Amino acid sequence: MARQDGLLDPEVTDAVVMDAVGRQRWFWLLLLKSGPIRNQGQAEVDDIQAAHLRHLFTLRKRRQLVLFGPVRDAGALRGIGVLTVATREEAGALMADDPAVRAGRLRADVRPWFTMPGDRLPD
Fold first, then answer.
1. Most buried of 6, 77, 89, 112, CB within 10 angstroms?
2. Which positions ≥6 away from 64 have C-beta within 8 Å?
């Protein structure tokens, strides 16, 4: 039943919700956090960042990483992403190979995340 404030849509029934939930699957939520080694000089930081972005864009091209980007004003949390690979171990290995993780500037925390395939950000 719709509330007077219009926040509930009467077409979003329990059956609609359960159908959508039944189509969900697990992905891997990537949380990139500040790593223990952040004392590199600016030229080295620039090189690490360029290699880090090439790594992320390579994973994107392979459709192993479908969403990613930096996070501002979040303390140690530097970026997030969504990995589509089959296992946590595979997701962890992909991120362990990230040049910024290898250099210690970032550390990758991979968490299971349940959501609906096909959802996307608006244009």
1. 77
2. 83, 84, 85, 94
In a domain, 14, yes or no: no
With tokens 């970026």, the residue in question is: 79
Q: Amino acid identity, residue 100?
A: A
Return the number of other C-beta atoms located less than 10 Å from residue 47's C-beta.
Answer: 14
Cα Rg of the chain (Å, integer)? 18
CATH code at position 81: 3.30.70.1060
**Is beta strand 65-70 parallel, antiparallel or unpaired with respect to 25-34?**
unpaired
**Amino acid 111: pLDDT:** 98
Confirm whether 7 is domain-assigned: no
Judge whether 10 lies within some domain: no
Tens-digit pLDDT profile for residues 5-24:
567 788 888 998 898 888 88
Torsion over CA of 77, 79, 82 and 86, rounded to 10 degrees? Answer: -70
